[in-house]
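Hi V.,

You were right to ask for the full record rather than a summary. Here it is.
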Amino acid sequence: MSLPHIGIISPEFPPDIGGVENYALGFAVALVELGYPVTVYTTPHSTGELALEGIDVCPQLKLRRVLDRDLLNNPSIEAWHVMNAAYAWVAEETDKPVVISIHGNDFLNAYYPLSAPALYRFGPFWRWTSRLRRLDNKWQQHTTRKIRRWLPQASQVLCNSRYTEAVLLDKIPACKGRTTAALVGVDPYFLDLPIVAPEHHKPTRLISITRLSEPRKNIDKVLYALARLKDDYEFHYTVVGDGSTKPQLQALALQLGLQNHVLFTGSLSREDLRNSLRQSDLFILTSSILPGSHEGFGLVYLEAAACGVPSLACRQAGAAEAVAETSSGFFVEQPEISAIAAALQSFLAGNISFQRKECRQFAEQFSWQRVVAKALPYYQ
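Predicted structure:
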């Protein structure tokens, strides 16, 4: 019996950078490796689409239900896998199996105004595009409310952590009996190269990789913490990523006298990002839980561990499942400047250390094959 053709709907997809993008790519590649035909529907990318063996990438999503529903008429697609809760409406529109992956924040606050009418795309309404787009925020709120109706209609909902599953069932109890904590996989790309042998070098190399647009990531608190340590320890801190808060963070580093200790690289290519991780001694991301926003899992902690690099995280939300204490990293209980400074001081002073081999062994437990296996029964 031939395997069903899987249609993946993923508005976030490489070449864009991010955890959800990497999730969608890793999932699609694992399906192909199992022999499934796969078509990925995503948004157009200005730099072009990835050329992936065995995967047909179609940049056709318009981020409006009224415009995207025609995609469901493709007779060759036998099951759908939705990679963002805002597209959960697919389960309401088709009688084919629909599996939905959720990531933590996408069902709390819709990323896209999928339920908006998109009038600006038709006839003379294009003249009012800017005015109509101002209503997108209200339509995103409307989409968030609709998600509560759409998600329970899925064949199954895959959650990226046990924490995310618990939050989902608390917010949308109607999903009970339709959820699986499938977790995530680590990209084999980060496991391909041998671990860099540990060096007793100075300065100690610290790194963060994140979008610089979410205050809950607490990069500013890391900077304040490092400012307390700069006169006593040698370190260099690399911040990888772009976003609206980057100028303020750069100004803060200068204000705190960290200009010789901190480098903001912006976004990096996949290869440069891996190289930067492999050469680092500690990955730092001490995220908070904010109303409507939390760290659903934190795939980047696994990518660091795969490179042999331990993490400093906050023991909140899904990050608690993405880092193995004593094996692949350690925690602060609250993302406060004093706690972050104390944890970093312990690491810089050599009072706490990790084996790079153990970090990788922890990451190797997370394979995309194991994640995909949780979905396969629901494609039939």
